[in-house]
Design goal:
Layout: H1 4-7, H2 15-31, H3 45-56, H4 61-69, H5 72-75, H6 87-94, H7 96-108, H8 120-140, H9 142-157, H10 164-184, H11 188-202, H12 204-213, H13 217-239, E1 244-250, H14 253-261, E2 276-282, H15 285-298, E3 300-301, E4 307-308, E5 321-326, E6 332-339, H16 340-348, H17 374-384, H18 390-401, E7 404-408, E8 414-418, H19 423-430, H20 432-436, E9 438-443, E10 446-448, E11 460-464, H21 481-490
Parallel strand pairs: 2-6
Antiparallel strand pairs: 1-2, 3-5, 4-5, 5-6, 7-8, 9-10, 9-11
Helix pairs in contact: 2-4, 3-4, 3-9, 4-7, 4-9, 6-7, 7-9, 8-9, 8-17, 9-10, 9-11, 10-11, 11-12, 13-15
The structure holds manganese (II) ion (MN).
Amino acid sequence: MNVNEITDLLKNPSKEDIELITHAFEFSKTAHEDQKRKSGEPYFIHPFETAKTLAHLQLDAKAIAAGLLHDTCEDCNGSDGKAIVDEAVIKKEFGEDVAFLVNSVTKLGTLKYRKEKEDKHEDEKWKAENLRKMFLAMAQDVRVILIKLADRLHNMETLEHVPKEKQERIARETLEIYAPIANRLGMGSLKGRLEDLAFPYVYPEDYKKVLEITKGKYEEKKKQLLKIKYKIEEEIKESGIKNYKIDWRVKHIYSLYKKLKKPEFNMDISKVYDLIALRIVVDTIEDCYKALGLVHKLYRPFPGRIKDYIAVPKINGYQSLHTTIFADGGNITEVQIRTQKMHEESEHGIAAHWAYDESGKPKKTGAVINPRLAWINQLVKWQKDAIHSKEFFEDLKIDFFKDRVFCFTPKGDVIDLPEGATAIDFAYAVHSEVGNQAIGAVVNEKFVSLDTPMKNANIVEIRTQKGKKPSSSWLEFTKTTFARRQIKLNSKR
Ligand code: MN
């Protein structure tokens, strides 16, 4: 283990960055000197791998240093006469920011223990409580969660060494808490890895079944794809598109499992067209649409399966064009087209948007610039409003993890809402005053009442009346936390 293995992953580290990381490296190595992992390896491997993941994500030096130090406070207890590592020591050695990060990760600690009982309500409460903890930490500084995710990734990679009775619980936490958060932060690659590592421990029987079903399928599909790839490549070469890369991605096994379990698939692998998908990466958005045209010129598209996530991105920021084509010999194949920037964002999510101020230093708070991840800023704002009620976090969970509905203003701005949201939620999402003074809505050119549920791709215009006040009866059909709060604040008593 050498500190270069971490710093070499960084694109433009400054001298100070390398010094900070090297100091943390040496400090952590000494602190963990006599400790062993369950596997019998030196404990230091764990913080080292955690820091490598953070460096791979291009996080700043302070976060990487904190990754190296993240277990020094809880795990080194000084019982054999060694100096106890506490927050004050970290602060003295590494400064306030690193100490804050290490302390936050330590405090986040382990999740609240789940009772073994299969009580659905208890289960929901467990999830809500743990998500609440995560969101609170995230609202303070997103780096805390990123360190926690990198920490969990290495723990999952070494889960085989953990006692059997603990494996399932840790894997389930990963599947239900950590992977959804990675997904919510747009970190597709991390989410996929966490899920795939947890899958065999949480659903061992189903895991075996999926392995059986897919036996030989990947190889078969790759052979078919080679021909299609070659043909598309020829076409793109001739078209004058300058920089392009054609590759494929293999579907993550847990994501495949979730698909197979849906009633319309019923474990039938022949219905899954994206087991391996072709992926075309180009320079510009214009080239994306151009490439889509070329693909459709060669192969007939499957009706109803062309998805434009460039014009309407997924809630976590994901952008790409997807199409499914009938290729040679009746092969049905998915093709994904995106720019290099979209590609990096879909792999690394929030880490690809790390917010820097003018001096090039990362901002101290969890605030991010990308509008698609604006919900984190919203979270920070709500957090500052200090509304910590249980109900608030229940609502928060609904807002962020349920499926989303995308609607449009007449100007074409996208308003995204949780499933089941109504016109009044839309009104408040546009502006609190639009919500407060709303009297009705025009949805796809038809006048409707405020309790009308919103559907994907609705074009919505809210009708208002000056000086009007919201009615508390609206709460009966209001779904979003923001709208509920505004109605409670502003309605007549
Ligand atoms: Mn750890």
